[in-house]
Protein 1
Amino acid sequence: MSLLSGDEFTVTELAERLRDGDRESLETIYRRWAPLVHTVALRSLGSHHEAEDVTQQVFISAWRSRHTLTPSEGALPAWLLGILRHRVADRLGERAREAHKVAALRSRDLDAQGAEPAGADAGSELVDRLVLAQTIDELGEPRRTILRLAFHEDLTHDEISRRTGLPLGTVKSHLRRGLAHLRRSLEEVRRDFV
């Protein structure tokens, strides 16, 4: 029986077929849940390219670890999102390691040029700045612009509202959520390098 649409199978049946090694069920599962996985990955990572890579990794991992799936009506999407959470954490860890490498190279270059040795505080400050800059760059609009206006141009909430044409409450909401996102990014990086 072909799974052209896959609509004739329940979620539990699809999970059972996947667990048993049916490749057509993987195709159906991909068609059904790839949009959800991609959306969550994009929101977590802020990059379409990375979200596409992570989405593919999730379904490759799902195939390779299908024997760990316990089929039930809600288990399959939750299992896929659990795999996604691990892949996103891996990607964020890679970002943090890259930022740390850049900071270490910059610190080493400064030392080689005869500058005063950078202390641990200076190195961690540089990593923080790099992570914040990257995180702001990856934010969607209008949040990215609002944060830049607030911090790079030192504008007040009212000035940002007038400049962007957005209501004051919307500006405040974007700033609050943007700052929370920045704080989480910094905490993840600091956790990886403590």
Note: Confidence is low (pLDDT under 50) at residues 116-120.
Protein 2
Amino acid sequence: MTTADASAPEPLTPELDEQIADIFGRRDREHMQPTIDAFLALLAEHPTQPEVLYEVGGSYDTAGEEATALGYYEAAMAAGLSGDPLRRCLLQYGSTLRLLGRHEDSLAALDRALVQWPVSPSVRAFHALALHAAGRSDGAVGELLALVADEIRTPDVLRYEAALHGNAGFLIGLDGQRER
């Protein structure tokens, strides 16, 4: 794996962003090797570029090569990944750590994402998965109840929004998690 020099990350140009989007758009989740190869070729041209490092990691992750993906995610973050790509990276990194049985590390990554993006539905859902994997089912169910109350805006759910939030807070409190 190539590691980035955190002191001099290459900026994401519109042309490079377009190349990344093109490679990502052509990916076949059932046959990831062409995508991995395309991103590795792009990384050879742009070895310090955080978004390229992140996409290489994501490609390996999608291919089921989680242990390889971790190093690229870590390199992307060390290279200065920021904004929404950082949110996605932390989510995928946390999920990968969970799949590898590193539950506390998974929660730490997803906790970091929650601090920066507390209303991101995807971060909240994957945080609940990490809580569940770590044996903290009360917190996981509480997180999901809060997500339902916050994100599903149907008349039926809105009628019970306060009850859902109350139960979520109770369960999260039982689990020792912070209140939402």
Note: The chain has two domains: 1-81, 83-180.
